[in-house]
């Protein structure tokens, strides 16, 4: 079916941020004298925000104060280097432009801290989104539906109007909690068998497939 609006996750959906996140994660761990994490470990840890990433990255049994210090080091490093290797996935900028040209409202809802989300969208997708929301202390993070519902209210949309596009089980749960349909992309931070085990029903593997899922078979190319 075609939808009235599309709301996107950021990391693993619009932008490949893995290498910059892994670099900042391992920088913080090294500064704290902790063992590094592999790229695949960091990939598996992503989806619930950067604080959750650090919690999973530090050795089991790390006390709260030490973990908080590691998170502070990570945050400082990532804020300074969040665009070193990050880039949109191939074809994604064109897809978002097509949605704009079709008159479809577009938004981003992410568990990444709001400041980073705003900066990355301004750098890589200037003028292409109508609403952009990252994680804030006063709003429950995904899979709670709060941010998604707030964006829908801002854009005068109902859940039946919207498709939420993401790359993880967190996004599947978020869409279900908000009452929206969900399309999951296969190029992000989870493998397809894992996604299917966690409830993903519609999985696309290319931007063209995503365009069709959002706009319908007659969508602009």
UniProtKB/TrEMBL annotation:
Which GO annotations describe the biological process of this protein?
A: DNA repair
Q: Which residues form a coiled coil?
A: none
One GO cellular component assignment for this chain's record is:
cytosol
Note the PANTHER family from the entry. PHOSPHOGLYCOLATE PHOSPHATASE
Protein name, as recorded: HAD-IA family hydrolase
InterPro entries found in the cross-reference section? HAD-like_hydrolase_sf, HAD-like_sf, HAD-SF_hydro_IA, HAD_2, HAD_sf, PGP-like_dom2
Gene Ontology MF annotations = phosphoglycolate phosphatase activity
Q: Which UniProt keywords apply?
A: Hydrolase
In terms of PROSITE patterns, this protein maps to: COF_1 (PS01228)
């Amino acid at each position: 079916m075609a939808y009235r609006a599309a709301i996107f996750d950021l990391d693993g959906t619009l932008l490949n941020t893995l290498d910059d996140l892994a670099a900042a994660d391992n920088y913080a761990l090294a500064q704290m004298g902790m063992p590094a994490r592999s790229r695949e470990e960091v990939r598996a840890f992503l989806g619930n925000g950067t604080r959750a990433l650090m919690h999973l990255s530090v050795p089991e049994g790390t006390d709260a104060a030490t973990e908080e210090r590691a998170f502070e080091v990570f945050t400082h490093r990532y804020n300074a280097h969040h665009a070193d290797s990050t880039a949109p996935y191939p074809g994604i900028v064109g897809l978002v432009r097509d949605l704009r040209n079709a008159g479809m409202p577009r938004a981003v809802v992410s568990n990444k801290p709001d400041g980073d989300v705003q900066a990355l969208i301004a750098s890589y997708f200037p003028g292409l989104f109508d609403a952009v929301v990252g994680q804030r202390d006063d709003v429950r993070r995904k899979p709670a539906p709060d941010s998604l519902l707030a964006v829908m209210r801002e854009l005068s949309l109902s859940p039946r109007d919207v498709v939420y596009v993401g790359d993880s089980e967190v996004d599947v749960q978020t869409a279900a909690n908000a009452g929206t349909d969900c399309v999951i992309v296969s190029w992000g931070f989870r493998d397809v068998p894992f996604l299917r085990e966690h409830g993903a029903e519609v999985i696309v593997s290319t931007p063209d497939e995503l365009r069709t899922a959002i706009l319908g078979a007659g969508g602009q190319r």
